[in-house]
Predict the structure of Putative hydrolase of the HAD superfamily.
Amino acid sequence: MYKNIIFDFGGVVVNFNPRDFLMDHFMNRRAEEETYDIVFGSQEWQDLDRGIITREEANKIMLEKAAHANRVFEVQTCLDEWFTMLETNKTTVQIMRKLKAAGYRLYYLTNIPTDVMDELRQREWFSLFDGGIASCDVHLCKPEPEIFTTLMQTCHLAYDESIFVDDNKANAQAAYNLGITGILYKNPKSFTRALGACGIEVE
């Protein structure tokens, strides 16, 4: 019997699609790909998630790379405006509220930089969570098994009583490999169907 639902943030609770963001801003395939590699696909972005570099340090390195690639305008625009992507997925939050009202305990497990985590903690839906782990706080990232076991041990969760929801297949698979039921999030409708397949009705 499931008791715990564990949520990723980006791409599940809040919108996060860097490639769409870049396409909307630049509408130039080469510029989009090069900017993606310098920012979202960079080692610095991974280090921000892991909490081992500051935003100021990361931005400085990214802009240095941008100068070499002649992409300073694009990268600076991205660094200035990417936060606007992080709109709350209101339908997912509605599902979370229904789960909470039905007695399920909600947790989060997310790869996220410190400054973004600080901002999300201020959102009204954050109080729905009973606990969780942010990668920046433990210096671990999904899909590393250690971040999952850290969450389970810290929050005293049973593996066979927990469902993990993520929009990244590798992360959902990592949870499954540890004995946690994994749901690959695509949209609220498919998420609701997946919960139903687990015996959890939210409609």
Notes: The radius of gyration is 18 Å. Residues 55-69 form the longest helix (15 residues). The chain has a mean pLDDT of 97. The chain has two domains: 4-15+87-197, 18-85.
